């Protein structure tokens, strides 16, 4: 199960760099990569989007590395924020035909990760709960 912890840590490091890149795209007109930001989203949605991803990634990285016992609870809040942003984006702004499938997959990922954080003996021991 420790390998799963490292996989989740890697995913959250990638989310961190994705969020930082998203904020950089909001500040600068031109970036040296293919933009992450969906041009269909208004500025205020992007601030919440990138902010929630940054919050979730930093919370998990810190929580995992520090063995912080509140990590599962804070990740519930973080994923809840990300899910709320996803609902706003999906129902308000996205035009993709697969937007509902993407939203469902995103929600399923949050549910599975939270289930592991709260119920897996590895994560319970890791976070000292």
General description of the model:
The chain has helices at residues 2-27, 43-66, 71-92, 99-119, 121-126. The chain is mainly α. The mean pLDDT is 96.
Describe the protein's topology.
Elements: H1 2-27, H2 43-66, H3 71-92, H4 99-119, H5 121-126
Output the keywords.
129 residues, mainly alpha, globular
Q: In brief, what are we looking at here?
A:
This protein has about 130 residues and is mainly alpha-helical. The protein has one domain. The chain has five helices and no strands.
The amount of beta strand, in percent, is under 5%
**Pairing-aware structural class of the strands and helices?**
mainly alpha
Proportion in helices: over 70%
Total domain modules: 1
- Report the principal-axis shape: globular
Number of helices: 5
Radius of gyration: 16 Å
H/E series: HHHHH
Mean pLDDT: 96
End-to-end separation in angstroms reads 17 Å
